[in-house]
Amino acid sequence: MTTTRTSTPTVMDVLAADRVLTVVRAPRIPDAAALCRALAEGGIRTVELTFTTPDLTGHLRAAAAVAAETGCRIGAGTVLTAGDAAAAVDAGAEFLVTPGLRPEVAAVGRERGVPVVMGAFTPTEVLTALDLGAAAVKIFPAHALGPRYFKDLRGPLPDVRLLPSGGVNAGNAGEFLAQGAIAVSAGTDAVPPQAVASGDWPEITRRAREFTAAL
Predict the structure, then answer these.
(1) Is 187 helix (H, G, I), strand (E, B) or coil?
(2) Which residues pair with residue 96 across a beta bridge?
(3) Distance (Å, rounded) from C-alpha 45 to C-alpha 186?
(4) Residue 1 Cα to chain centre, angstroms
(5) Which of 107, 121, 158, 168 has the fewest C-beta atoms under 10 angstroms from its C-beta?
(6) Rounded to an integer, what distance in angstroms lies between the CA atom of residue 101 and that of residue 112?
(7) Active-site residue 151, yes or no?
(8) CATH of region 11-214, choose from 3.20.20.70, 3.30.420.10, 3.40.350.10, 3.40.1280.10
(9) Could you confirm whether 104 is annotated as catalytic?
(10) Tens-digit pLDDT profile for residues 13-58
(11) Of these residues, 111, 125, 138, 175, which one is catalytic?
């Protein structure tokens, strides 16, 4: 009798399947576990909590504690230094996201076996991010160049995983995907800062459902 083993999907597997991650930027998060439940109920399972929110490591721990229950994959965003990267991984982050090229963050990702989604804008920066070992490249701010830019980049770089961030909403997300993005980054359109800060979880679920339906 042959036993078939099924491997646990990686963060990048989940991202490619769902085609969306959400970036949470809020002045406060009253309950990170409840936030993840609300997002997962709305169909968004890849969640990026950022260092622009106070006490990020505490929120990462709370979110990671319910990861198995919610199916969410939890990451840290706006990671600028090696120290922040290491602290985020220690708190349970399964992936790291930078706004630009950060070699020191990439080094921590390699050492700890955690994928890094590195920010870039120009073709040269995209290539540099790939050289640094980025699992995917976040084009930021995506609204400045629009969906067609992704088709242009994939001409010479057909295998690169591109993720638009900044100005992506339910109205244009599908076009970014159609032009070659592996997934899109849902920001304040899906998770308004004040809705997060006030703990309006039904509204977060509603917006997540609306965003995923548009994909």
Answers:
(1) coil
(2) 76, 116
(3) 12
(4) 41
(5) 158
(6) 18
(7) no
(8) 3.20.20.70
(9) no
(10) 999 999 999 999 999 999 999 999 999 999 999 999 999 999 999 9
(11) 138
